[in-house]
């Protein structure tokens, strides 16, 4: 469990980092908090020739509310979780972050690292999908933005090209009618979820609008429950029957994989339960 | 309170007092020294090349690229090691048992994923792993056996040519009238239970360092082991060295839990390599190796039958135990460590006069099995105790009352298979636990919750713990051999005390609890007693620490030795105070005449006379104040109960473990603080067995839980506060009245938790047949019940 040898670079600006990525191309890997990458390197499942450590890039550590919540890729998960801005503006992100590993892991792990790593069971990608977040990706040609729906492409695969850096994530400030919640089931506290569900909606005159429901752990990436979203549009999520049906619809099209922790059929059933519960938490936890 | 200060207010007697652990400061200050912390000048590091196949012939091994790598000093394969040392052969002195050998490194074939085929020694572990990656091994895969029943079946491929049927042993016991009892019983209940494949998962993995001095011919081995002396005795022949030229040192050890009470091939390989290279060599096992290639535990497929009368009296027990023992027979305890211990403890605390069992210890293409806290006893208990709950349910009886109805009395009792229980609070502890959880109130709350669609459950799991392992106790569990321990007690010239013992403290608090015994016996303060262990050149020979034996076995030998030294002190004091030794009292560092406290002398002064007093010593008394004694206790068994209360989320299958109550009776308690710590740890590991720990293999023998992301054990977030209370029924047969403890929680908690889950799921008629119980399993039980 020791990594193979590698070269190490420690750029201090995004521009410098992107230059290094351009130069080394496929041979390089970005090192953020290292909480996923370093175990893979220790097990020699990843053997990058060059490690580009982005921990010294101050501009990646910005967390601000300015026409929306902007979290730099380098912001530690713990910093985001404890941030008064996050807790005030989009508290559901903190709710999701509480489930990410343990405090020691969150103290190193970054928001960008988790999103770029794109584990299909991870909390941050799921909540970002539910919040319709936008990722900022920077390459040699400059910045581009990618909506969450297009960002996650498969297991550990995203829209970030090998010579690009994920630099931040942007979430619109939710209005007063917004409601959201995150729930998950895992084997133990801090484990990756067996299934997670994130919902975000607006409650206008008792009816749900702009509903987004994202599920983790049920496919090769976090997925939106389109049929449940459409069903809920205009309906009253305070009604348990409505929530039940939304859960059923959310799970109906899923075909999750099995592993030693749970068969796919379990994940499918529990998806329905968690969607129902997340909806309930979102509208009843007011 | 500052713990760095010695106790100033001393209890009237140390034994039984909550003395703070004297060893903790070192750990809390970060001054513990574990194997990985050790380094010697010129030290090399080793890494192993391990098999990716479950079962395969080794066609060829090419080490040339690895050898050519800069920084790599040596690469050795099994063929080379076979010239340097001999295989480890596990055998038991029982005619049913076949010896099974394990080569130091595999030569012709590998038998499980993770088995070592070559070793690379380099200037650093990094380089050694680089080298290991360059060793190219050509394998010819063979069919893999992952199901022990299949492995037993006719025509199955053989793992070892000299183990027919892949069965290390078939052992039977029959009290005689079992079939008759079953034939005439009103009801017969039967259950197959499959206990999960667990692993001790100590925080510190294994590790070995060795240094050979060609100038003296002396080899020193540092190993993260539970049994330094035993390791030396067992490993010497394999190194072709005599014990006088071997020193084994166990540094601070970060947990063993039974895994490290074995001797492993690495403990022969590293010394052999150090001797050959004439440079110190160290190997620290990493977590992947630890999970795949150290020792697994407790996976047994069990069929239990109980013959019962309509009013709930147990007439006979019948058990079949098929151990899924992995590819080798763990050295030295053999593959029987789980299935045979499970079978022999089948009667537990029930008054059953007819019993039979069959045990098979089956080899499969998995990692070998080794001891892990409550070996065999824990899975066996789980099968029996879950069946008893099923029976209570079927007969419409309360599960607690059903147990009490069949429970033995408090007096000593000889089981149908000749275990000699030395008396205990078998019923009393159950009643006490019932009171502590307010059983009747719980049942009301449960009913009320059910009416709201919430599922609460309670599980009772009373146990007898077959710990201690003196010769008789080991034999009663099926392992005939001599197990005793030795201790030396020395009052130094300044009156302070040095105790040495062949047991080895690796977290149990012996440096406190054993010192308490010596301090009381010698009348000195505990601050003035030092316990030395873990080094074969500093402590007397002993078999090590495992099987909850140290308090009894080390404790007894210390009491014997300390008594001898005490008598010397009494004689000295009598002579100096001009009184009869019988009238002398030793307390708090003073020797005084009973009832005449002003006539006293400091023990330090007595010691001075004992060493240098010449004619002041009583006639005939030799100088120095030291004694070495051994103790081999008779059978002794602690007992107790673990009760668990859970709430089950019927929609997700999540189990919320809300409360755990434990009642422990281990006879005389040396230190309740330490006893409670042991109960906490043991119960936590039992919770692991019930809900989390499972090493899974796929059909081709690939290990699916090869990291701690997939092999789950409970952490502080999964373990509730464990409420412990005590009953003290001193053993009438052991020196000091102690009974071995520390495994009861692991034996009993799995059944407590699983019975609680089944109890919560009573409306669904749930019968639980395997462990661990995952949320998905709970949901499946609920659905089956609804269907
Ligand atoms: C014990 C444990 C438990 C955990 N439990 C959970 C959990 O419950 N839920 C969960 O979601 N996660 C969990 N994690 C993972 C943790 O959240 C990681 O922090 C996260 O997945 C990766 O973030 P990082 O900053 O550590 O990234 P790193 O490990 O440094 O990198 C991860 C990957 O992302 C790439 N990368 C990182 N940053 C960027 C960037 N800015 N641009 C482009 N590529 C980038 C790296 O090249 C690498 O491929 C756990 C980890 C551990 C060790």
From TrEMBL, chain A:
Gene3D superfamilies: 3.30.465.10, CO dehydrogenase flavoprotein, C-terminal domain (3.30.390.50), Uridine Diphospho-n-acetylenolpyruvylglucosamine Reductase, domain 2 (3.30.43.10). The keyword Transmembrane does not apply. It holds the Pfam family CO_deh_flav_C. Residues 1-176 form the FAD-binding PCMH-type domain. GO terms for molecular function: FAD binding; oxidoreductase activity. InterPro entries: CO_DH_flav_C, CO_DH_flav_C_dom_sf, Diverse_Substr_Oxidored, FAD-bd_PCMH, FAD-bd_PCMH-like_sf, FAD-bd_PCMH_sub1, FAD-bd_PCMH_sub2, Mopterin_DH_FAD-bd. Signal peptide: none annotated. Keywords: FAD, Flavoprotein, Oxidoreductase. This is Xanthine dehydrogenase family protein subunit M. It comes from Pseudonocardia bannensis.
UniProtKB/TrEMBL annotation, chain B:
Residues 29-143 form the Aldehyde oxidase/xanthine dehydrogenase a/b hammerhead domain. One of its GO terms (molecular function) is iron ion binding. Keywords: Molybdenum, Oxidoreductase. It holds the Pfam family Ald_Xan_dh_C. This is Xanthine dehydrogenase family protein molybdopterin-binding subunit. It comes from Pseudonocardia bannensis.
């Amino acid at each position: 469990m020791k990594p193979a040898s590698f070269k190490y670079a420690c750029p201090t600006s995004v521009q410098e980092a992107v230059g290094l990525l351009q130069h080394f191309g496929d041979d390089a890997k970005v090192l953020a908090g290292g909480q996923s990458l370093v175990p893979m390197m220790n097990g020699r499942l990843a053997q990058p020739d060059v490690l580009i450590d982005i921990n010294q890039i101050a501009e990646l550590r910005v967390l601000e509310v300015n026409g929306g919540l902007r979290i730099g890729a380098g912001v530690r998960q713990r910093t985001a979780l404890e941030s008064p801005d996050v807790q005030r503006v989009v508290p559901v992100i903190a709710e999701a972050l509480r489930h990410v590993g343990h405090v020691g892991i969150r103290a190193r792990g970054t928001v960008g690292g988790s999103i770029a790593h794109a584990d299909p069971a991870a909390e941050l990608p799921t909540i970002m999908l539910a919040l319709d977040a936008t990722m900022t990706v920077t390459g040699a040609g400059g910045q581009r933005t990618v909506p969450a729906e297009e960002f996650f492409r498969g297991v550990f695969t995203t829209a970030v090209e090998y010579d690009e850096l994920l630099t931040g994530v942007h979430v619109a400030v939710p209005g007063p009618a917004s409601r959201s919640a995150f729930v998950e089931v895992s084997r133990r506290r801090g484990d990756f979820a067996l299934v997670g569900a994130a919902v975000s909606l607006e409650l206008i005159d008792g009816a749900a609008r702009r509903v987004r429901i994202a599920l983790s752990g049920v496919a090769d990436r976090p997925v939106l429950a389109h049929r449940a979203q459409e069903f809920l549009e205009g309906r009253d999520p305070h009604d348990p029957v409505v929530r039940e049906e939304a859960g059923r619809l959310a799970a109906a099209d899923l075909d999750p994989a099995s592993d030693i922790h749970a068969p796919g059929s379990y994940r499918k059933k529990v998806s329905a339960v968690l969607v129902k519960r997340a909806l309930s938490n979102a509208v009843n936890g007011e | 309170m500052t713990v760095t200060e010695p106790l100033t207010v001393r209890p009237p007697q140390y034994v039984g007092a909550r003395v703070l652990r004297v060893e903790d400061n070192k750990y809390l200050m970060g001054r513990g020294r574990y194997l990985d912390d050790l380094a010697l000048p010129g030290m090399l590091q080793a890494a192993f090349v391990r098999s990716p196949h479950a079962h395969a012939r080794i066609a060829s091994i090419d080490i040339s690229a690895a050898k050519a790598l800069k920084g790599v000093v040596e690469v050795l394969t099994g063929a080379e090691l076979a010239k340097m040392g001999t295989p480890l052969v596990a055998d038991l002195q029982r005619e049913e048992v076949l010896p099974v050998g394990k080569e130091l490194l595999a030569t012709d074939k590998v038998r499980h994923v993770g088995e070592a085929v070559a070793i690379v020694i380099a200037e650093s572990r990094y380089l050694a792993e680089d080298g290991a990656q360059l060793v190219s091994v050509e394998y010819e895969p063979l069919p893999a056996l992952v199901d022990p029943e299949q492995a037993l079946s006719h025509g199955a491929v053989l793992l070892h040519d000299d183990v027919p049927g892949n069965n290390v042993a078939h052992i039977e016991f029959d009290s005689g009238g079992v079939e008759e009892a079953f034939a005439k019983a009103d009801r017969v209940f039967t259950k197959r239970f499959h206990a999960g494949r667990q692993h001790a998962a100590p925080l510190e993995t294994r590790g070995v360092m060795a240094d050979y001095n060609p100038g003296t011919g002396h080899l020193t081995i540092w190993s993260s082991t539970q049994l330094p002396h035993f390791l030396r005795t067992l490993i010497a022949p394999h190194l072709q060295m005599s014990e006088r030229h071997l020193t084994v040192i166990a540094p601070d050890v970060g947990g063993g839990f039974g895994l490290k009470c074995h001797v492993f091939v690495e403990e022969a390989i590293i010394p052999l390599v150090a001797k050959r290279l004439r440079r110190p060599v160290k190997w620290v096992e990493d977590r992947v190796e630890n999970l795949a290639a150290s020792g697994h535990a407790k996976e047994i497929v069990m069929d239990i039958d109980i013959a019962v009368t309509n009013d709930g009296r147990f007439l006979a027990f019948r058990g079949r135990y098929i151990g899924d023992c992995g590819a080798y027979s763990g050295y030295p305890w053999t593959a029987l460590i789980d299935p045979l211990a499970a079978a022999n403890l089948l009667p537990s605390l029930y008054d059953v006069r007819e019993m039979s069992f069959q045990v098979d210890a089956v080899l499969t293409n998995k990692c070998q099995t080794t001891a892990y806290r409550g070996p065999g006893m824990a899975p066996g208990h789980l099968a029996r105790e879950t069946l008893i709950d099923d029976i209570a349910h079927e007969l419409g009886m309360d599960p607690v009352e059903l147990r009490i109805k069949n429970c033995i009395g408090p007096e000593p009792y000889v089981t149908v298979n000749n275990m000699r229980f030395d008396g205990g609070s078998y019923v009393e502890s159950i009643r006490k636990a019932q009171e502590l959880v307010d059983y009747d109130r719980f049942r009301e709350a449960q009913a009320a919750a059910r009416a709201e669609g919430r599922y609460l459950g309670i599980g009772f799991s009373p146990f007898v713990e077959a710990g201690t392992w003196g010769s008789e106790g080991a034999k009663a569990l099926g392992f005939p051999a001599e197990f005793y321990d030795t201790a030396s007690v020395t009052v130094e010239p300044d009156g302070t005390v040095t105790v040495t013992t062949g047991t080895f403290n690796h977290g149990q608090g012996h440096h406190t609890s054993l010192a308490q015994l010596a301090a009381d016996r010698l009348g000195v303060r505990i601050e003035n007693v030092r316990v030395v262990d873990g080094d074969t050149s500093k402590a007397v020979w002993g078999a090590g620490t495992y099987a909850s034996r140290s308090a009894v076995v080390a404790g007894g030998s210390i009491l014997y030795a300390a008594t001898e030294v005490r008598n010397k002190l009494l004689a000295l004091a009598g002579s100096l105070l001009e009184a009869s030794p019988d009238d002398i009292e030793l307390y708090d560092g003073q020797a005084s005449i009973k009832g005449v406290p002003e006539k006293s002398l400091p023990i330090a002064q007595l010691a001075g006379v004992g060493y240098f007093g010449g004619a002041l010593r009583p006639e005939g008394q030799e100088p120095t104040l030291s004694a070495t004694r051994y103790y081999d206790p008779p059978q002794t068994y602690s007992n107790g109960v673990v009760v668990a209360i859970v709430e089950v989320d019927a929609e997700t299958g999540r189990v919320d473990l809300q409360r755990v109550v434990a009642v422990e009776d281990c006879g005389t308690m040396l230190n309740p603080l330490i006893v409670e710590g042991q109960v906490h740890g043991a119960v936590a590991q039992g919770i692991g067995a019930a809900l989390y720990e499972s090493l899974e293999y796929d059909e081709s023998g690939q290990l699916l839980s090869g990291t701690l992301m997939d092999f789950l054990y409970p952490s502080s977030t999964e373990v509730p506060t464990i409420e412990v209370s005590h009953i003290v029924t001193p053993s009438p047969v052991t020196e000091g009245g102690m009974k071995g403890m520390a495994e009861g929680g692991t034996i009993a908690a799995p059944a407590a938790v699983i019975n609680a889950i089944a109890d919560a799921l009573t409306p669904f008629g749930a019968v639980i047949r395997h462990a661990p119980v995952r949320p998905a399993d709970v949901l499946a039980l609920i659905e089956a019940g609804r269907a």
